[in-house]
Amino acid sequence: MKKWNDTEMVEAVARHDVAMMEHFYHDCKAYFKSHANALFLADSNTDDIFQEAMVHLWREIETHRIEVVDGALSRWRDGVAQPLTSSLYTFLLAIAKRKHWEQLRKDARLRLTDDGSLLDNLNSERYAENTLPDGDEEAIREKVVTDSVLTMSERCRQILTLFYYEKRSLDEILELRAENTSKVGLKTSKYKCMQRLRQLVRERFAKLHLSI
Amino acid sequence: MENKYEHHDLERTDSLVGTDKHEGMDAIEGMDALDKLIADELGQQERLRNMMQSWETRKRAQRRSRLIPFISNILSVAALMIAGLIIHALVPKTTIASSSAEEYRPLIDYVVGGHAEPAATPVVPTDSAEAEP
Q: Which tens digits make up the pLDDT trace of B20-31?
């Protein structure tokens, strides 16, 4: 049985209360699994979808895009804190569905007609712009980078994390990733991933008149 | 002339790939801050993933630690039941029906009621030729 409310959980995540976060994680996973069959294709990797959705939700809370404002759980949109109209569970499922659809579109397993409303919902760039909070330039810059990194493919995220965060060499990454068979191919992939990410961040910075 | 970039970690300086040296220098100065932001964000997300992974590992270990005693209890009970069945099969059985009912007739009559006390020992039928003097 749920022993916390959404407001308490958001405050716990914001202050990095690991015990509460673990409790929240297991509760969310149970809720997600009970709805996964109805929401996702049978051969989807629901564990990965769930994990990506949780990371996204937690980053939204840690970067104060979702926070408690005047005692109410709110989400920043276009510089305005709007009360969250759904529970965190429902919000998590919405993030998971969106990531799943983005992945399907990339995999080209589903051909979408040029339905503006559907594509608008799936357009992660617009999603990111709509959720930028009011705040100092440093905070907004951080949030733009967060959003951009979250839109990366799993492959790019893994390669860039191993290289730039864990500081592994290309040879070590080759050993860890069976998908990459040559060092030249891996270096090209890394370069392209990083270039795409940098370009995306720069474009968003330019739109918001931020300096790098 | 010494290569300005000789001591750079060239693998980590993608900006130099395919660019003019001067452009590359500007790119390095501009991109270092951005690369740092990106690396920081990658680190934050990786931290969260590692945390979730550790929680999953701990939960699986907890499930295993509850399951093993439960399974060993079931196996112990099953072993006891099998041993009991084996013992039951091996031990010879004796019942009144396997003996001659006549040997115990006087005792049964006495217990049921109203008859003379039986002899101290059951009457064992003997060969009549031997009994006669």
A: 343 444 344 455
Would the CB atoms of A18 and B33 count as touching at under 8 Å?
Answer: no
B60 and B32, same domain (yes or no):
yes
Mind listing the pLDDT tens digit for each residue in A160-175?
988 888 888 999 999 9
ipTM of the complex: 0.76
User: Which are the contacts of A104, defined by CB distance < 8 A and separation ≥ 6?
Assistant: A41, A110
Q: Are residues B72 and B118 located together in one domain of the fold?
A: no
The total number of structural domains in chain B stands at: 2
Place of tokens 């270990």: B61
For chain A, the residues whose C-beta falls within 8 A of a C-beta of chain B are 18, 21-22, 25-26, 51, 54-55, 58-59, 62, 141-142, 145-146, 149-150, 157, 160-161, 163-166, 169-170, 187, 190-191, 194-195, 197-198, 201-202, 212
**What does the CA dihedral A134, A139, A140, A142 come to, rounded to 10 degrees?**
-150
Q: Note down the domain range covering B117.
A: 93-126
Same domain membership, residue B77 and residue B19: yes
Residue B132 is assigned to a structural domain of this protein: no
